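Hi, here's the filled form for the chain we discussed.

Project: internal
Contact: R.S.
Residues: 117
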Amino acid sequence: QLQLVESGGGLVQPGGSLRLSCVASGVTLGYYTTGWFRQAPGKEREGVSCINSSSGYTYYRDSVKGRFTISRDNAKNTAYLQMNSLKPEDTAVYYCAAGTYCVPRHWGQGTQVTVSS
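And the returned structure, exactly as it came back:
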């Protein structure tokens, strides 16, 4: 059974950085696309970034372009989201998801990211 576990969230000041990790078990993550989503209080869940390492395809929502970088280490069955120049509006619960064509099918439990001074 596929399981995704996120880590790396926390409290950071504006302008700071965090790296989120998503470790997969029960499946080879390389068989799926891997996406990062986030949900802020009172808002709908939104896609942040996605990667298909087989094709080299990556997606970023406009508001994070140039600040966030998605990557994946298939040998470690782990995906990452490097987040730099964080802003208060990046505050949310961040989820990783494995899927096909960046359509999520399996979700992690989420990790809280809070950007505040």
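Let me know if anything looks off before we file it.
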